[in-house]
Amino acid sequence: MSIELYRDKNHACIMFTDLIEEDGQAVQANQFLIVDDDTGAIIDPGGNLAFNELFMGMTTHFPPHKLSYLIASHADPDIIASLDRWLTSTKASLVISRVWERFAPHFTKVGKTENRVIGVPDSGGHLPLGRHELVLLPAHFMHSEGNFHFYDPVSKILFTGDLGVSMMSGAEASRPVTDLQAHIPRMEGFHRRYMVSNKILRLWVNMARQLDIAMIVPQHGAPIMGKPAIQDFFAWIENLKCGIDLFDDRAYQVPTAHIDPVTRQMRPALRQVG
Ligand SMILES: [Fe+2]
Ligand SMILES: [Fe+2]
Questions:
Q1: pLDDT of residue 49
Q2: For a tag site, which of 50, 93, 104, 270 has the least CB within 10 Å?
Q3: What is the CA(74)–ligand 2 centre distance, in A?
Q4: 142 CA to centre of ligand 1 in angstroms
Q5: What band does 24 get if pLDDT is binned at 50, 70 and 90?
Q6: 173 and 221 Cβ atoms separated by less than 8 Å
Q7: 57 half-sphere exposure, CB direction, 13 A CA radius
């Protein structure tokens, strides 16, 4: 199922929330299609689990063979493990951090990425999209070392990859959240472990507050919609201790536990760090 996050006569932002079978093995993930006039881009196309469904699902909105870009916030498997199939089935270029430019070809057959990768420098930039553009915003270390968020000035949507994510089903992810306080418990554990440090979150909030944002749309879980919830998100994230803020010498001890390959459990059971 696809959800229209925004549509006017020339421009549309479509979200897919439930393309991956919910058997509990793979984390729920969202994929996005942005169309401006006759130009189309996919943001965070996903892994092999999502490819067939997304390719078929997008055809009602935009012909895949006309896609211009595959835009990747970072290089994790749930973002671009399907790269080989997209490069085979479309003429699109991969837009990704320069940090990952020479790593991405490991997802594809030999030569497939030749002249098809746009490596984005750390400072980001404006990428033309039809009659408009997408702003590629620096979001490094949130969580990936080379990471970008994507601001669409037409819809005023900020696509934030793994920032602002929440753990839920695809059906729940299709319903935007407007009350942040009730939503925090579904975001907190992920952000404490996957975000690198509070310093990075504060630097990002200083940049993001300069944008006129209608919706923050993460790659897992529900969009955060409306100014009050977005202000609350900024206030929450800029005060959150995470990643290396929470790790100390207790996390770096020579292990004593043993892995039982039959039960796939640790003996004795591990205590949670952080
Ligand atoms: Fe990630
Ligand atoms: Fe992710």
A1: 85
A2: 270
A3: 9
A4: 8
A5: confident
A6: yes
A7: 22
Which residues make beta-bridge pairs with 165? none
The pair of structure tokens assigned to 131 is 């009659």
Tell which residue, 126, 161, 124, 158, has the closest CA to residue 144.
161
* 144 vs 267, residue with greater confidence: 144
pLDDT tens, residue by residue, 150-164:
999 999 999 999 999
Residue spans of beta strands (DSSP E) within 104-235:
117-120, 125-129, 132-138, 148-152, 157-159, 215-217, 224-225
CA distances for 263 relative to 74, 241, 258, angstroms: 33, 34, 12
With tokens 């993930």, the residue in question is 29
Measured in angstroms, how far is the CA atom of residue 271 from the centroid of ligand 1? Answer: 24
**CATH architecture of the domain covering 2-267:** 4-Layer Sandwich (3.60)
Expressed in angstroms and rounded, the spacing between residue 213 Cα and the centre of ligand 2 is 21
Which protein residues have a CB closer than 5 Å to ligand 1 (ion)? 76, 162
Dist. CA 131 → ligand 1 center (Å): 30
How many CA atoms lie less than 13 Å away from 188 in the CB half-sphere?
11
Task: Give the 3-state secondary structure of residue 34.
Answer: strand
